């Protein structure tokens, strides 16, 4: 099976630095199921192409197969794995290009951090759902997609098309993001994996997909397919994605094999409960103008827009892609002139003062502070509480003590979290901020209450004291 990556960034041979594979060398890497060859069919200043060729050894694959692997009988030997891209190619690519996937490149770090023109071609790709599913999965990530069905037999057109497509992706994308997207989406399109999936698959998914999967409109479909539709793993992954912000809209259904059935009222996703709680706080405060700081793709903004009580609404985020999703969700391009004057979206970093943050009755920091490095948190405090000075600030963040109740969770709820406070740590932080900037603070819990560990989400409501000097 074959995968090629081409760039026209100049000098194009810088692709070798990003991949940590020299264009003048042909390199081979042994895998448990075959051999990977990396070579450069073309390498010039204007255009450079790297090819990854995986030669699968069916006997070695069968012998390395775990006891719980999905294949059985003759399917171990008679299959399409020798020529069709699958989880085998995804695993091989992830191993061979592991440093490139991390985004590290000491020789060209600025380039590794930048989006560059890329063309990715996979000649034969299993695509359950047809070419339409390839468009659905890749286009929201910024790719122009060509997914041409492969005929069953060129000599017999009446037989129709096979389940395979020739995939060509073109776009301006950071190379590390492109490789991580392929690592996740190749087995998703095939809807099959060559190995047994355990709880560590959730961590793998979030490591490769956390930066983009949370805002993908088909995040639930991708998660379910990647995890083989295993209910418990899917539920855990979706819950952890929801912790990133407002990304997962679909309710997380209880697993079919749950021993204890919870009442329907307790099946409301935590993300929904969080939105309900913050929305009610804003209404109770009587806020007329609200800014959602770190608004992500705009799910909570959508709720604010649909609430007539809020006469002025703004959303800000450091991610331009998230703002694009938010604009699409809110149908900004189709808003009436009056509605457009009511809503504002803008790009901004919360560690830098911005006059556009000021002048609001209330500000929301929903699942935001835990994504800020602790040394930079004081800068955020100065920007929000010291410079912008809204009448009220609503902060939500995970309760780290509750994590032991998440099945299969190792470490924090999302790989981008810099910390997850205990209730005492959150109390100390919120008391210090309130005292420093002239606010009163009240703390509450959101989600199912555990008598010993509290609730999964903790919330602080800061209200500015009357007579506090600006």
Task: Characterise this structure.
The protein is of the alpha/beta class and 470 residues long. The chain folds into two domains: 2-196, Hen1, N-terminal domain (c-terminal autoproteolytic domain of nucleoporin nup98, 2-Layer Sandwich); 267-464, Rossmann fold, CATH 3.40.50. Helices cover 34% and strands 23% of the residues. The chain is built from 16 helices and 14 strands. The chain has a seven-stranded antiparallel sheet with strand order 2-3-4-1-5-7-6. It has a seven-stranded mixed sheet with strand order 10-9-8-11-12-14-13, sandwiched between helices. The longest helix has 16 residues, at 175-190. The termini are far apart. Residues 66-73 and 245-266 have low confidence and may be disordered. Its cofactor is Mg(2+). Its EC number is 2.1.1.386. Residues 1-242 form the Hen1 N-terminal domain. Residues 291-393 form the Methyltransferase type domain. It comes from Nocardioides albidus.
Short summary of the structure?
With 470 residues, the chain is an alpha/beta fold. The chain has helices at residues 15-19, 58-63, 87-96, 98-102, 109-112, 131-138, 175-190, 200-213, 219-226, 231-243, 270-285, 299-305, 320-330, 337-342, 374-388, 423-437; strands at 2-7, 27-31, 34-43, 48-56, 115-126, 144-151, 161-174, 289-293, 312-317, 343-347, 362-366, 392-398, 439-446, 457-464. The protein has 2 domains: 2-196, Hen1, N-terminal domain (c-terminal autoproteolytic domain of nucleoporin nup98, 2-Layer Sandwich); 267-464, Rossmann fold, CATH 3.40.50.150.
């Amino acid at each position: 099976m074959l995968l090629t990556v081409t760039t026209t960034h100049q000098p194009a041979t810088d692709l070798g630095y990003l991949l940590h594979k020299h264009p003048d060398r042909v390199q081979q890497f042994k895998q448990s199921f075959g051999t990977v060859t990396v070579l450069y069919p073309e390498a010039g200043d204007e255009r450079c192409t790297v090819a990854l060729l995986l030669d699968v050894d069916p006997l070695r694959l069968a012998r390395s197969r775990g006891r719980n692997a999905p294949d059985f009988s003759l399917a171990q030997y008679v299959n399409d794995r020798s020529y069709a891209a699958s989880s085998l190619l995804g695993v091989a690519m992830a191993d061979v290009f592991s440093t490139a996937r991390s985004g590290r490149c000491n020789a060209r770090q600025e380039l590794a951090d930048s989006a560059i023109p890329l063309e990715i071609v996979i000649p034969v790709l299993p695509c359950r759902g047809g070419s339409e599913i390839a468009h659905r999965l890749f286009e929201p990530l910024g790719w122009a997609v060509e997914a041409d069905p492969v005929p069953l037999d060129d000599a017999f057109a009446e037989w129709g098309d096979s389940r395979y497509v020739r995939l060509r992706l073109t776009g301006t994308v950071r190379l590390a993001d492109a490789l991580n997207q392929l690592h996740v989406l190749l087995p998703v399109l095939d809807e099959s994996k060559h190995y047994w999936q355990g709880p560590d698959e959730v961590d793998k998914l979030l490591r490769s997909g956390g930066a983009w999967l949370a805002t993908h409109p088909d995040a639930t479909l991708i998660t379910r397919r990647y995890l083989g539709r295993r209910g418990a793993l899917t539920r855990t992954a979706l819950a952890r994605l929801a912790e990133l912000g407002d990304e997962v809209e679909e309710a997380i259904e209880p697993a079919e094999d749950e021993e204890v059935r919870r009442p329907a009222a307790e099946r409301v996703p935590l993300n929904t409960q969080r939105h309900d709680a913050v929305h009610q706080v804003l209404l109770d405060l009587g806020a007329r103008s609200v800014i959602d700081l770190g608004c992500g793709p705009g799910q909570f903004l959508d709720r604010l827009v649909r609430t007539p009580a809020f006469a002025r609404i703004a959303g800000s985020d450091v991610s331009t892609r998230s703002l694009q999703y938010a604009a699409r969700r809110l149908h900004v391009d189709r808003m009436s002139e009056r509605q457009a004057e009511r809503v504002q979206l803008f790009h901004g970093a919360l560690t830098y003062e911005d006059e556009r943050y000021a002048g609001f009755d209330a500000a929301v920091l929903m699942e935001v502070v835990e994504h800020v490095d602790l040394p930079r948190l004081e800068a955020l405090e100065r920007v929000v509480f010291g410079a912008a000075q809204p009448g009220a600030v609503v902060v939500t963040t995970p309760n780290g003590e509750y994590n032991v109740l998440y099945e299969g969770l190792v470490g924090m709820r999302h790989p981008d979290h810099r910390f997850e406070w205990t209730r005492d740590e959150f109390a100390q932080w919120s008391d210090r901020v309130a005292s420093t900037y002239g606010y009163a603070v009240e703390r509450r819990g959101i989600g199912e209450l555990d008598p010993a560990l509290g609730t999964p989400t903790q919330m602080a409501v800061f209200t500015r004291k009357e007579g506090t000097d600006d």
